[in-house]
């Protein structure tokens, strides 16, 4: 790759240092791993002619031995094609990333209606409380969400959308009966909340919870195809 040397006006050693410096800064890269292998083998340095072994040549002149010349040539990081990486506008990326996290919050609110720390413990890391808490606060400050103490026995802040808050203010029909699977997202089974321990069944797909209005009634499930019922709350 002699054209790199001609364009840069640097000797081989200086050009190699500049190339690897650009790599460490994330400015340039190579389209083959062979350049990286050579760099590792030579500790990212080029053998200078002064370091190469010489031997007697014609007319009494000292010449570089063939093996030493091959070693010098092999230390050059000229394999493959070097090219600049596109510059990234970090300001734009931060804004876009924050909007992405807000979209994740909206997705979770559509799923749960309310968000609090323990509820998100089963989610993927990108949907965890730690990953989204800052976005929740920003959405609260912008007026998109409400924060408060909406349900008893749940420690820490709770966040709801305005639509969910309006639904919470409306009363559930006292005589209506409905049920959910214990493993559904809306189920509180398995949450690490002290107030719920011993009051809810295990989070199993074969278990269902029955409610009458806002009161929990019974839960039932199957074990070896045999149905069973158990009273767990009044």
Explained architecture:
The protein has 234 residues and is an alpha+beta fold. It has three domains: 2-84, no CATH class; 88-170, Arc Repressor Mutant, subunit A (Orthogonal Bundle); 172-234, no CATH class. The chain has helices at 2-8, 12-24, 34-41, 66-74, 90-112, 129-141, 162-169, and strands at 28-30, 54-56, 62-64, 82-84, 114-115, 145-148, 158-161, 177-181, 207-212, 215-223, 226-231. The strands form four sheets. It has a four-stranded antiparallel β-sheet, with no helix packed on it. The chain has a three-stranded antiparallel β-sheet with strand order 5-7-6. Helix 5 crosses helix 6 (129-141). The N and C termini lie far apart (81 Å). Mean pLDDT is 75; it is low at 223-234.
Strand numbers in spatial order across the main sheet = 8-9-10-11
Number of helices: 7
What's the β-strand tally?
11
State which percent range the strand residues make up: 15-25%
Number of domains: 3
How would you characterize the largest beta sheet?
Answer: 4 strands, antiparallel
Shape, please? elongated
**What kind of oligomer do you see?**
single chain
Write the H/E string, N to C.
Answer: HHEHEEHEHEHEEHEEEE
The assigned structural class equals: alpha+beta
Global mean pLDDT: 75
Q: Show unreliable segments.
A: 223-234
Helix content: 25-40%
Instruction: Report the span from N to C terminus.
Output: 81 Å
Radius of gyration over C-alpha positions, nearest whole angstrom: 33 Å
């Amino acid at each position: 790759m002699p054209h790199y040397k001609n364009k840069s006006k640097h000797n081989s050693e200086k050009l190699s240092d500049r190339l690897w410096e650009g790599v460490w800064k994330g400015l340039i890269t190579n389209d083959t791993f062979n350049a990286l292998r050579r760099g590792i083998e030579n500790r990212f340095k080029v053998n200078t002619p002064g370091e190469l072994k010489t031997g007697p040549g014609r007319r009494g002149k000292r010449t570089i031995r063939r093996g030493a010349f091959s070693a010098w040539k092999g230390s050059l990081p000229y394999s493959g094609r070097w090219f600049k990486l596109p510059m990234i506008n970090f300001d734009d990326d931060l804004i876009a990333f924050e909007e992405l996290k807000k979209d994740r919050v909206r997705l979770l609110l559509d799923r749960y209606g309310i968000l609090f720390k323990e509820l998100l413990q089963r989610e993927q890391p990108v949907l965890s409380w730690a990953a989204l808490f800052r976005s929740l606060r920003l959405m609260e400050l912008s007026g998109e969400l409400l924060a408060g103490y909406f349900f008893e026995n749940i420690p820490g802040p709770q966040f709801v959308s305005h639509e969910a808050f309006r639904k919470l203010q409306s009363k559930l029909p006292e005589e209506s009966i409905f049920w959910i699977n214990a493993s559904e997202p809306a189920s509180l089974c398995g949450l690490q909340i002290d107030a719920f321990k011993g009051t809810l069944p295990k989070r199993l797909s074969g278990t269902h919870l029955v409610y009458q209005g806002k009161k929990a009634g019974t839960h039932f499930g199957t074990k070896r195809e045999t149905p069973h019922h158990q009273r767990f709350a009044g």
